[in-house]
């Protein structure tokens, strides 16, 4: 290796080898024995005082129990179905004197064979010397591509010409040289004989799809394959689309008695609302709001937990053209003040529960824009009593020529970023239409089904799973207005109310599997999904074992609708986010915006070559610089990283700034969290980077233990050893801390910068 870049790469490899040796507790002498070199020579290799032959690196990888790619590149191979290596693009693994070797499948994980492109330069001097022999476990196959090769196996010698091949046990001493006066290029396939494990894949459990045409299909044109999998989607006639009129009222006119929502309050009181009910109550609410002075473009904050009045208010605001701002009841005074002032909120509809209204009132004292206050579920001085006042208004609210719709603003979320103040994410009326894929092809909602998504109405997830897509599919939503999540309280409801499809964030699924799931009846549930954060495969496996249900993961952001998912009609890979939705043109790119190779980690982006796809946000309100920053190079940059396998499935790695760079390795925190979550005494886990003078950064694991588990030093070591034995050892957490809880945003996402 003669160039500066080659020397740097050699130093990186040497550093990784030393790091792995120390992690696994091998002495230099032990490694010398494992790699079949002298202790002196091993030390030279590890100290980068001598070029490393390929066989040495290969034997190091075998001794460490990792892929050779991890030593060469500092990252794991990822592909498991197939990989293509273009001419001249193999991963150079070694360049000894007179020998050049390139790996032809560096991105394929768990290989049963290692294929190499090899070039032996012709040397007149070597023709007169004994062939240098080596041996290693397994078998080997060599095929000459050009030139001639003399191969010695044991005491036997064979001359191979172009097209000739040889297969032999590589435990027998063997070696080779180029002969015939010219260089020899050949294919070498090394077969160590180790087993691999394929990714578990599951078919969807939904047995039938609704055949009756949906009313919303006047706005949506789809193409499916023979399995019902979505191949293409096109949105049409949406210039004036308004969810209140074009979906709620349209379904109410055709199916007035069709159930739209089954609502259970905290006292377990049941309320059933038909689409006709929703049409009438939202009309009354719209007339009420207009009388109070709310008009098109006004910003109205809804802090309504899971109260049924939220649905009336949302549809009413859409019909008026006011901009709805759903917000969580967990906000503190500072949070309210920031949101009121940043968005120029003019009205608030708030729950009477707890001290939410009191906190909001204190914030309003420092906010000039809020002029109108309405309370749901109670009364308070200075506030309108929503429940008493709105029912007296007319149940008719008609569409006019001025009714807003299409690309006009309709909705705004405050993003729940893990750092800094939240951004104001503005969506248009077409955002709701963009959730057609979410409900029909991911949630698998059916017209006669009952869908349950666990989410407070203050989060975007509630609109993903408690309103837009489900009503586009003319199905009903199940809502339980609980105070605090209690798995034992919720689990019996699946059988009692015959819930057919279910979606919950991974945090709540983790809590559910801590219960004895065998006690509950899930027979009515046909399909399960999750999103909001990455799902630990161990959670999915335990749920599958207990209930027979596969959890289908999906990915999207506050700024988008469902972007990547394991959709209906396709195989689901446990641990993968799935494939890109046909609604979006999704790529994985490097920091320069160039697409990365299959198996390489990069940032998830959405191409905007053909304009904004339906479902993508309009802008970060009042923040043109941040809007431009994420909408550069004709792409929307998500800030999330992943890699895509050879079948087109995306695998989540973390936020762009979450990647840990330790000892020359690039480590994604989620992979380590997955392993730690397999331990039965771990309730939650967050992995982050910790500064280190020698390694740059080290892996730190913050662990929340299950109730009754004693946090001991021995347990820390057990966690470290478990990670070492279940993933590449260099990824193990050098620092393990036990915590009572993990720092999270108000939406429940782990704040890694505070770990």
Tell me what you see in this structure:
With 755 residues, the protein is an alpha/beta fold. Among the domains are: 1-86, 434 Repressor (Amino-terminal Domain) (Orthogonal Bundle), CATH 1.10.260.40; 272-426, Rossmann fold (3-Layer(aba) Sandwich); 659-754, GMP Synthetase, Chain A, domain 3 (2-Layer Sandwich), CATH 3.30.300.30. The chain contains 22 helices and 39 strands. A nine-stranded mixed sheet has the order 14-13-23-22-24-25-26-27-29. A hairpin with a 5-residue loop joins strand 11 (220-224) and strand 12. Helix 6 runs antiparallel to helix 7 (275-291), helix 7 packs across helix 8 (309-320) and helix 9 crosses helix 10. The chain is elongated, with a radius of gyration of 30 Å. Mean pLDDT is 90; it is low at 194-211.
Shape: elongated
Which fold name is given in CATH as the topology of the domain at 272-426?
Answer: Rossmann fold
Strand order of the largest sheet: 14-13-23-22-24-25-26-27-29
Radius of gyration: 30 Å
Keywords:
755 residues; alpha/beta; 434 Repressor (Amino-terminal Domain); Rossmann fold; GMP Synthetase, Chain A, domain 3; nine-stranded mixed sheet; six-stranded antiparallel sheet; 22 helices; 39 strands; elongated
């Amino acid at each position: 290796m003669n160039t500066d870049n080659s020397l740097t790469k050699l130093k990186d490899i040497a550093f990784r080898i030393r790091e792995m040796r120390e992690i696994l507790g091998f002495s230099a002498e032990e490694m010398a024995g494992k790699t079949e070199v002298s202790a002196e020579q091993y030390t030279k290799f590890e100290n980068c005082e001598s070029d490393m032959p390929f066989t040495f690196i290969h034997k190091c990888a075998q001794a460490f129990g990792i892929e050779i790619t991890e030593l060469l590149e500092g990252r794991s191979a990822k592909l498991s179905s197939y990989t293509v290596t273009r001419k001249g693009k193999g991963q150079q693994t070694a360049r000894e004197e007179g020998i050049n070797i390139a790996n032809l499948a560096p991105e394929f994980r768990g290989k049963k064979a290692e294929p190499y492109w090899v070039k032996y330069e012709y040397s007149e001097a070597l023709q007169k010397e004994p062939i240098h022999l080596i041996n290693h476990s397994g078998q080997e196959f060599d095929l000459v591509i050009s030139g001639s090769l003399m191969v010695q196996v044991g005491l036997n010698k064979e001359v191979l010409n172009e097209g000739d091949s040889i297969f032999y046990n590589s435990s027998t001493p063997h070696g080779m040289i180029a002969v015939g006066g010219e260089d020899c290029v050949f294919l070498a396939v090394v077969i160590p004989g180790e087993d691999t494990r394929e990714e578990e894949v599951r078919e969807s459990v939904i047995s039938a799809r609704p055949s009756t045409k949906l009313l919303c299909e006047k706005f949506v044109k789809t193409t499916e394959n023979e399995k019902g999998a979505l191949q293409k989607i096109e949105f049409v006639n949406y210039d004036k689309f308004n969810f209140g009129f074009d979906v709620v009222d349209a379904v109410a006119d055709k199916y007035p008695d069709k159930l739209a929502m089954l609502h259970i309050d905290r006292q377990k009181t049941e309320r059933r609302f038909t689409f006709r009910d929703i049409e009438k109550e939202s009309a009354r609410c719209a007339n009420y709001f207009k009388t109070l002075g709310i008009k098109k473009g006004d910003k109205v904050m809804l802090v309504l937990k899971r109260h049924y009045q939220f649905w009336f208010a949302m549809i009413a605001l859409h019909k008026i053209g006011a901009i709805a701002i759903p917000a969580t009841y967990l906000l503190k005074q500072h949070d309210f003040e920031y949101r009121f002032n940043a968005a120029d909120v003019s009205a608030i509809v708030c729950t009477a529960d707890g001290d939410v209204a009191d906190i909001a009132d204190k914030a309003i004292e420092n906010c000039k824009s809020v002029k109108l206050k309405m309370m749901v579920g109670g009364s308070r001085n200075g506030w309108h009593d929503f429940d008493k006042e709105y029912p007296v208004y007319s149940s008719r609210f008609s569409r006019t020529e001025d009714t807003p719709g299409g690309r006009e603003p309709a909705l705004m979320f405050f993003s729940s970023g893990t750092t800094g103040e939240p951004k104001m994410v503005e969506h248009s009326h077409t955002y709701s239409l963009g959730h057609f894929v979410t409900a029909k092809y991911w949630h698998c909602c059916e017209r006669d089904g009952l869908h349950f998504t666990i989410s407070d109405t203050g989060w975007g997830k509630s609109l993903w799973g408690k309103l837009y897509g489900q009503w586009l599919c003319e199905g009903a939503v199940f809502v339980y207005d609980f105070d605090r999540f209690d798995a034992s309280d919720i689990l019996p409801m699946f059988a009692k109310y015959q819930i057919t499809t279910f979606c919950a964030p991974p945090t709540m699924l983790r809590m559910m599997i801590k219960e004895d799931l065998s006690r509950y009846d899930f027979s009515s549930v046909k399909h399960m999904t999750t999103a909001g954060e990455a799902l630990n495969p161990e959670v999915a496996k335990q749920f599958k074992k207990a209930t027979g249900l596969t959890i289908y993961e999906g990915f999207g952001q506050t700024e988008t609708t469902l972007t990547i998912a394991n959709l209906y009609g396709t195989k689901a890979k446990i641990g993968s986010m799935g494939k890109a939705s046909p609604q979006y043109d999704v790529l994985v790119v490097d920091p320069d915006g160039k697409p990365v190779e299959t198996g390489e980690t990069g940032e998830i982006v959405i191409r905007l070559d053909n304009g904004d796809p339906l479902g993508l946000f309009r802008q970060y309100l009042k923040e043109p610089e941040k809007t431009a920053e994420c909408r550069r190079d004709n792409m929307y940059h998500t800030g999330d990283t992943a890699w895509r396998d050879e079948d087109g499935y995306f695998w989540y790695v973390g936020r762009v700034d979450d990647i840990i760079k330790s000892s020359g390795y690039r480590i994604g925190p989620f992979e380590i969290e997955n392993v730690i979550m397999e331990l039965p005494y771990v309730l939650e886990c967050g992995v982050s980077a910790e500064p280190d003078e020698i390694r740059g950064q080290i892996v730190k694991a913050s662990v929340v233990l299950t109730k009754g588990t004693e946090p001991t030093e021995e347990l820390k070591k057990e966690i470290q050893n478990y990670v070492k034995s279940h993933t590449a050892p260099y990824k193990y957490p050098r620092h393990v801390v036990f915590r009572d809880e993990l720092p999270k945003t108000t939406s429940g996402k782990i704040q890694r910068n505070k770990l």
